[in-house]
Amino acid sequence: MKKIVSSAIVLGLVIGMTAFYAPNTFSSQVSTNQAQTPVSKDQIKQWIQQQSKKKDHYMEELAFQEINLDQDEELEVVATITGGVHLGTFFLFDRQANGSYQLITEQPWKIDSLDLDQPVLEIGDKRIYQVVQHTGGTGVSVEIAILWYVDKGRFVEAWTGSLKEISSFQEEYYALHGSYHFDGENLYYSTTSYKRPDDDTKPVTEFKQETVPYSFNGTLFEAVKK
Description:
This protein is mainly beta. It has one helix at 41-51; strands at 2-4, 62-67, 76-82, 88-95, 101-107, 121-123, 126-137, 140-151, 154-169, 172-183, 186-197, 206-216, 221-223. The chain is 5% helix and 50% strand. The protein is flat. The strands form two sheets. A nine-stranded antiparallel beta sheet has the order 1-6-7-8-9-10-11-12-13, with no helix packed on it. A four-stranded antiparallel beta sheet has the order 2-3-4-5, with helices on one face.
Protein backbone atom coordinates (compact mmCIF):
# COMPACT_ATOMS: atom_id res chain seq x y z
CA MET A 1 0.00 0.00 0.00
CA LYS A 2 1.35 3.38 -0.98
CA LYS A 3 1.37 6.04 1.67
CA ILE A 4 2.60 9.59 1.24
CA VAL A 5 3.68 10.96 4.59
CA SER A 6 5.08 14.34 3.65
CA SER A 7 7.02 16.17 0.98
CA ALA A 8 9.93 18.54 1.13
CA ILE A 9 9.46 22.00 -0.31
CA VAL A 10 12.36 24.38 -0.64
CA LEU A 11 11.88 27.48 -2.72
CA GLY A 12 14.26 30.26 -3.57
CA LEU A 13 14.46 33.49 -1.63
CA VAL A 14 15.69 35.64 -4.52
CA ILE A 15 12.76 34.75 -6.72
CA GLY A 16 10.01 35.46 -4.21
CA MET A 17 9.91 32.02 -2.67
CA THR A 18 10.19 30.79 0.90
CA ALA A 19 12.13 27.90 2.42
CA PHE A 20 11.05 25.12 4.79
CA TYR A 21 13.37 22.84 6.69
CA ALA A 22 12.87 20.32 9.48
CA PRO A 23 13.84 21.78 12.86
CA ASN A 24 17.19 20.97 14.39
CA THR A 25 16.19 17.95 16.46
CA PHE A 26 19.38 16.03 17.06
CA SER A 27 18.38 13.62 19.78
CA SER A 28 19.70 10.74 21.80
CA GLN A 29 16.23 9.70 22.93
CA VAL A 30 14.75 6.35 21.95
CA SER A 31 11.81 7.00 19.61
CA THR A 32 10.36 3.47 19.49
CA ASN A 33 10.67 0.11 21.25
CA GLN A 34 11.25 1.41 24.76
CA ALA A 35 12.06 -2.14 25.97
CA GLN A 36 15.42 -2.01 24.20
CA THR A 37 18.17 -0.57 26.40
CA PRO A 38 19.19 2.86 25.05
CA VAL A 39 22.76 3.22 23.86
CA SER A 40 25.05 5.91 25.20
CA LYS A 41 27.18 8.49 23.45
CA ASP A 42 30.31 6.79 24.79
CA GLN A 43 29.25 3.50 23.21
CA ILE A 44 28.75 5.18 19.84
CA LYS A 45 32.16 6.86 20.10
CA GLN A 46 33.67 3.43 20.66
CA TRP A 47 31.86 1.94 17.66
CA ILE A 48 33.07 4.78 15.45
CA GLN A 49 36.66 4.36 16.64
CA GLN A 50 36.50 0.61 16.01
CA GLN A 51 34.59 0.53 12.72
CA SER A 52 35.10 3.86 10.94
CA LYS A 53 37.50 4.14 8.01
CA LYS A 54 38.69 7.43 9.53
CA LYS A 55 40.33 7.43 12.97
CA ASP A 56 40.57 11.13 13.85
CA HIS A 57 36.94 12.25 14.15
CA TYR A 58 36.14 15.31 16.26
CA MET A 59 33.84 13.55 18.71
CA GLU A 60 32.79 16.70 20.58
CA GLU A 61 30.25 17.42 17.84
CA LEU A 62 28.72 13.92 17.89
CA ALA A 63 24.91 13.69 17.89
CA PHE A 64 22.71 10.63 17.44
CA GLN A 65 19.20 9.26 17.32
CA GLU A 66 17.82 5.76 17.89
CA ILE A 67 14.93 4.80 15.63
CA ASN A 68 13.43 1.76 13.92
CA LEU A 69 14.11 2.45 10.24
CA ASP A 70 13.27 -0.88 8.65
CA GLN A 71 11.11 -4.00 8.83
CA ASP A 72 12.49 -5.66 11.97
CA GLU A 73 11.78 -4.75 15.61
CA GLU A 74 15.29 -3.58 16.44
CA LEU A 75 16.34 0.05 16.67
CA GLU A 76 19.02 1.42 14.36
CA VAL A 77 21.37 4.22 15.43
CA VAL A 78 21.93 7.25 13.18
CA ALA A 79 24.87 9.42 14.19
CA THR A 80 26.42 12.59 12.79
CA ILE A 81 29.58 14.54 13.40
CA THR A 82 29.84 18.15 12.23
CA GLY A 83 33.19 19.83 11.71
CA GLY A 84 34.08 22.98 9.78
CA VAL A 85 31.95 24.94 7.35
CA HIS A 86 31.38 22.01 5.00
CA LEU A 87 32.87 19.12 6.99
CA GLY A 88 30.93 16.31 8.59
CA THR A 89 30.21 12.58 8.65
CA PHE A 90 26.99 10.56 8.63
CA PHE A 91 26.94 7.08 10.24
CA LEU A 92 24.29 4.37 10.37
CA PHE A 93 24.58 1.40 12.74
CA ASP A 94 22.36 -1.67 12.43
CA ARG A 95 21.66 -3.86 15.47
CA GLN A 96 22.69 -7.48 14.86
CA ALA A 97 21.05 -10.67 16.17
CA ASN A 98 23.68 -10.99 18.92
CA GLY A 99 22.94 -7.44 20.18
CA SER A 100 26.05 -5.80 18.69
CA TYR A 101 25.89 -2.85 16.30
CA GLN A 102 27.39 -2.96 12.81
CA LEU A 103 28.32 0.15 10.82
CA ILE A 104 26.47 -0.24 7.50
CA THR A 105 27.25 3.16 5.96
CA GLU A 106 29.67 6.02 6.52
CA GLN A 107 29.21 9.10 4.33
CA PRO A 108 31.21 12.38 4.20
CA TRP A 109 28.08 14.47 4.68
CA LYS A 110 27.66 17.52 6.88
CA ILE A 111 24.13 17.27 8.29
CA ASP A 112 23.13 20.32 10.35
CA SER A 113 19.51 19.37 10.93
CA LEU A 114 18.28 15.83 11.54
CA ASP A 115 14.65 14.83 12.09
CA LEU A 116 13.90 11.15 11.54
CA ASP A 117 10.70 10.92 13.57
CA GLN A 118 8.70 10.41 10.37
CA PRO A 119 9.69 9.15 6.91
CA VAL A 120 8.97 11.42 3.96
CA LEU A 121 7.42 8.47 2.09
CA GLU A 122 6.46 4.84 2.64
CA ILE A 123 6.44 2.45 -0.33
CA GLY A 124 5.39 -1.05 0.67
CA ASP A 125 7.64 -1.97 3.59
CA LYS A 126 10.25 0.67 2.72
CA ARG A 127 10.41 3.77 4.92
CA ILE A 128 12.19 6.53 3.04
CA TYR A 129 13.90 9.31 5.00
CA GLN A 130 15.55 12.60 4.07
CA VAL A 131 18.75 14.28 5.20
CA VAL A 132 20.11 17.56 3.81
CA GLN A 133 23.83 17.71 3.12
CA HIS A 134 25.67 21.04 3.22
CA THR A 135 28.72 21.31 0.99
CA GLY A 136 30.59 23.81 -1.17
CA GLY A 137 33.84 25.74 -1.18
CA THR A 138 35.20 29.23 -1.77
CA GLY A 139 32.33 31.28 -3.19
CA VAL A 140 30.09 28.19 -3.40
CA SER A 141 27.28 27.02 -1.11
CA VAL A 142 25.23 23.89 -1.88
CA GLU A 143 22.43 22.05 -0.08
CA ILE A 144 21.54 18.57 -1.33
CA ALA A 145 18.50 16.50 -0.37
CA ILE A 146 19.31 12.82 0.02
CA LEU A 147 16.51 10.23 0.19
CA TRP A 148 17.48 6.88 1.69
CA TYR A 149 16.17 3.82 3.48
CA VAL A 150 17.32 0.63 5.20
CA ASP A 151 16.34 -2.70 3.66
CA LYS A 152 17.28 -5.94 5.44
CA GLY A 153 20.35 -4.39 7.01
CA ARG A 154 21.43 -2.61 3.82
CA PHE A 155 21.64 1.18 3.38
CA VAL A 156 20.13 2.35 0.07
CA GLU A 157 20.53 5.89 -1.31
CA ALA A 158 17.36 6.21 -3.40
CA TRP A 159 17.65 9.76 -4.81
CA THR A 160 19.58 13.02 -4.52
CA GLY A 161 18.74 16.52 -5.72
CA SER A 162 20.02 20.04 -5.09
CA LEU A 163 17.81 22.27 -2.97
CA LYS A 164 20.14 25.25 -3.25
CA GLU A 165 23.25 26.12 -5.24
CA ILE A 166 24.84 29.55 -4.91
CA SER A 167 28.14 30.46 -6.53
CA SER A 168 30.09 33.52 -7.51
CA PHE A 169 32.92 32.91 -9.98
CA GLN A 170 34.75 35.02 -12.55
CA GLU A 171 32.36 37.95 -12.07
CA GLU A 172 29.29 35.78 -12.61
CA TYR A 173 26.64 34.98 -9.98
CA TYR A 174 24.67 31.72 -10.28
CA ALA A 175 21.69 30.61 -8.17
CA LEU A 176 19.56 27.46 -8.25
CA HIS A 177 16.65 26.66 -5.93
CA GLY A 178 14.94 23.29 -6.02
CA SER A 179 12.06 21.38 -4.48
CA TYR A 180 10.47 17.96 -4.82
CA HIS A 181 7.09 16.40 -4.13
CA PHE A 182 5.54 12.95 -4.38
CA ASP A 183 2.51 11.70 -6.28
CA GLY A 184 2.08 8.06 -5.33
CA GLU A 185 5.40 6.36 -6.12
CA ASN A 186 6.42 9.16 -8.46
CA LEU A 187 8.75 12.00 -7.48
CA TYR A 188 8.72 15.38 -9.24
CA TYR A 189 11.82 17.54 -8.93
CA SER A 190 11.56 21.21 -9.92
CA THR A 191 14.35 23.76 -10.19
CA THR A 192 14.58 27.45 -10.92
CA SER A 193 18.00 28.85 -11.79
CA TYR A 194 19.53 32.00 -13.19
CA LYS A 195 22.81 33.69 -13.98
CA ARG A 196 23.75 37.35 -13.93
CA PRO A 197 26.89 39.46 -13.72
CA ASP A 198 28.27 39.58 -10.19
CA ASP A 199 26.75 43.01 -9.68
CA ASP A 200 23.19 43.04 -8.37
CA THR A 201 22.41 46.27 -10.18
CA LYS A 202 22.53 44.44 -13.52
CA PRO A 203 19.66 42.31 -14.86
CA VAL A 204 19.54 38.53 -14.99
CA THR A 205 21.21 37.27 -18.16
CA GLU A 206 19.84 33.73 -18.11
CA PHE A 207 16.73 32.28 -16.45
CA LYS A 208 15.63 28.62 -16.50
CA GLN A 209 12.85 26.53 -14.97
CA GLU A 210 12.64 22.74 -15.20
CA THR A 211 10.66 19.84 -13.74
CA VAL A 212 11.93 16.27 -14.01
CA PRO A 213 9.71 13.27 -13.14
CA TYR A 214 11.13 10.18 -11.43
CA SER A 215 9.51 6.80 -10.85
CA PHE A 216 10.39 4.26 -8.19
CA ASN A 217 11.74 1.06 -9.75
CA GLY A 218 11.56 -0.97 -6.55
CA THR A 219 14.98 0.18 -5.37
CA LEU A 220 15.72 3.71 -6.64
CA PHE A 221 13.96 6.73 -8.12
CA GLU A 222 14.84 6.82 -11.84
CA ALA A 223 14.34 9.78 -14.15
CA VAL A 224 11.48 9.12 -16.56
CA LYS A 225 12.73 9.20 -20.13
CA LYS A 226 10.88 11.59 -22.40
